[in-house]
Design brief:
The protein is α+β, with helices and mostly antiparallel strands. The chain is 48% helix and 16% strand. It is built from 4 helices and 2 strands; from the N terminus they run αβααβα.
């Protein structure tokens, strides 16, 4: 799908990753998970499409551990 988008002139997109914590994602009613995110980014990275990622950190119910999970995911996606 992303190859077709690239061929059609699509050159940039954004993804709301939100959190690296399944607990936080569930609480904010998001259905993505880190494995699916890696899969989709892997497909996009096979194209010239640029991706902007956004994260949410510091929600009132977050712990230091859930924030660390988000930071760790962000670092792994940048590698």
């Amino acid at each position: 799908m992303f190859k077709l988008m690239e061929q059609a002139g699509f050159y940039r997109t954004g993804m709301g990753i939100d959190s690296g914590s399944l607990q936080v994602l569930s609480k904010v009613k998001r259905t993505q998970n880190p494995e699916k995110i890696n899969e989709v980014l892997g497909m996009i990275n096979k194209t010239s499409i640029k991706v902007k990622l956004s994260f949410i950190i510091g929600l009132p119910f977050e712990t230091l551990e859930t924030m660390r999970q988000t930071i760790d995911l962000a670092k792994s996606l940048l590698a």
